[in-house]
Amino acid sequence: MNNNKQFTYNVSDYDQFSYDYSLYWQKRRYEDLAEKTLLDNVFEEKKGNWFLDVGGSYGRLTNSYYSKYQHPVILDYSAKTLRQNWEIIKSKYPNVELIAANAYKMPFKEDVFDGALMVRVLHHIEHPLEYFTELKRILGDNAEYVQEFANKVHIKAVVRALLKRNFKFFSQEPFAQPSITMSEGSNNVEGIFYNFHPKHINKLLAQNGFTVKKKIGCSFLRSPFLKKLFNDNTLLFLEKTMRATLSWTNISPSIFFETKLKKENETKMQYEKFEDTLCCPQCKGELEIVADSATCKKCNSVFKKESNVWDFRVQ
Ligand SMILES: C[S@@+](CC[C@H](N)C(=O)[O-])C[C@H]1O[C@@H](n2cnc3c(N)ncnc32)[C@H](O)[C@@H]1O
Ligand SMILES: [Zn+2]
User: Fold this and answer.
1) Separation of CA 58 and ligand 1 centre (Å)
2) Per-residue H/E/C for the chain
3) Global pTM?
4) What is the CATH number of the domain that holds 172?
5) What are 235-261's pLDDT values in tens digits?
6) Of the ligands numbered here, which is closest to the C-alpha atom of 28?
7) What lines the ligand 1 site, CB under 6 Å?
8) The total number of structural domains that make up the chain
9) pLDDT for the residue 191
């Protein structure tokens, strides 16, 4: 673990290239519904006060948790996406707060959130252990966290590796995918796109006090051939059947972990206003907030709220 607060990690900056992520979903109804139906089940029994959707973008998945938590927050590094979608998101989900920030260095005080979610973002996170450490800081004891990740050892990758007799592939090391043009922002400068071994993610979560309560496979039928063969409704029906029977395997390309965090300190903070949950993302110092400007009392960094969205991005 890196204890140096000045560390910087590469970020997949969606603002650096013209890429409307919502367009990505127009031709992927099956995957979209597979994830949404899965999350509807996951959040059915959950409830709480503050909730964080890390890398939540334009709020594609907000419906699944919105009615369960009093104060849902969407955090994303792409300030552009948040600002462009602010009005649509707020009209559908008036209680949601939007904030531009880096998942590695989040601008929240300790023990704020009762729940959190990350979907289709971990592949952009080169240092998941450091991210989980930061996440643990802002979650309260017993918080519930849902982590989705691109699975390195899904069935097609395994068959491919066996055919090539590439036995090294089966290690728990993350697999850096070559840049795939326009595939979920992976054509950016750094081309950060990792597939992870489920055991590796489980281990890193455990190092930070998260216990995986349930593993759920998703998008079992993600294949151009099957998509030509079946319509979306048939695919979704088969998906649900496979989800119920095959989630114990690692065959699906995407995996969701439902986890629970156990912290040593059991203090639970109660905040009513969004601004009260905030601190300096760089040094975690207290902020002096006047109108649309926040100044860190410790390191003097200044952060602004523009076009309805606070910008707390640091690298
Ligand atoms: C593929 S999109 C997924 C969006 C959303 N979770 C969903 O499933 O619809 C990835 C998002 O992660 C954000 N992202 C990537 N790296 C990030 C980081 N270090 N901190 C915060 N957000 C990040 C991107 O800006 C982008 O909006
Ligand atoms: Zn500071």
Assistant:
1) 10
2) CCCCCCCCCCCCCHHHCCCCHHHHCCCCHHHHHHHHHHHHHHHCCCCEEEEEEECCCCCCCHHHHHCCEEEEEEEECCHHHHHHHHHHHHHHCCCCEEEECECCECCECCCCEEEEEECCCHHHCCCHHHHHHHHHHHEEEEEEEEEEEEECCCHHHHHHHHHCCCHHHHCCCCEECCCCCCCCCCCCCCCCCEEECHHHHHHHHHHCCEEEEEEEEECCCCCHHHHHHCCHHHHHHHHHHHHHHHCCCCCCCEEEEEEEECCCCCCCCCCCCHHHHECCCCCCCCEEEECCEEEECCCCCEEEEECCEEECCCC
3) 0.94
4) 3.40.50.150
5) 999 999 999 999 999 999 999 999 999
6) 1
7) 11-12, 14, 21, 55-57, 60-61, 76-78, 81, 102-104, 119-121, 124, 184-185
8) 1
9) 66
